[in-house]
Write a structure and sequence with these properties.
Helix content is about 5%, strand content about 45%. By secondary structure, the chain is mainly beta.
Length: about 120
């Protein structure tokens, strides 16, 4: 796989960077630290608002989820998987020439025990 690092805004249109004829897998990568000040009863949720057409979600090099564009949203507890420094990848294949993959908003949510709904 040819790797060409670039800085992209997420969410956003990747066509200006990848080109309208891109075919392959685009990898969104982000490093982040473990949130500080977590209470024992708080959880860290990874939220990915959308991936089109589909994608694989990786944390620390381990696949933690598959997301299908039809499902629109992933919300999963990653508290036990967190390290002081973390690496998140979202691999998004391009399925149609002229339609590069897209990733919506990606965020962490810190929630208490009464907020753990999906």
């Amino acid at each position: 796989m040819q790797e060409t690092p670039a800085t992209l805004v997420v969410p956003g249109d990747w066509t200006p960077v990848l080109g309208s004829d891109f075919q392959g897998v685009a990898r969104f990568a982000r490093r982040f630290g473990r949130p500080t000040g977590l209470e024992a009863n708080e959880r860290v949720m990874l939220v990915v608002e959308s991936v089109a057409p589909r994608g694989s979600i990786w944390l620390q090099g381990e696949k933690i989820a598959e997301i299908d564009g039809r499902d629109q949203r992933l919300r999963t507890d990653i508290t036990a998987r967190l390290s002081p420094t973390n690496q998140l990848w979202i691999d998004v294949p391009s399925m149609v020439v002229g339609e590069p993959g897209r990733v919506g908003e990606v965020r962490l949510e810190i929630v208490g025990p009464n907020s753990l709904t999906t």
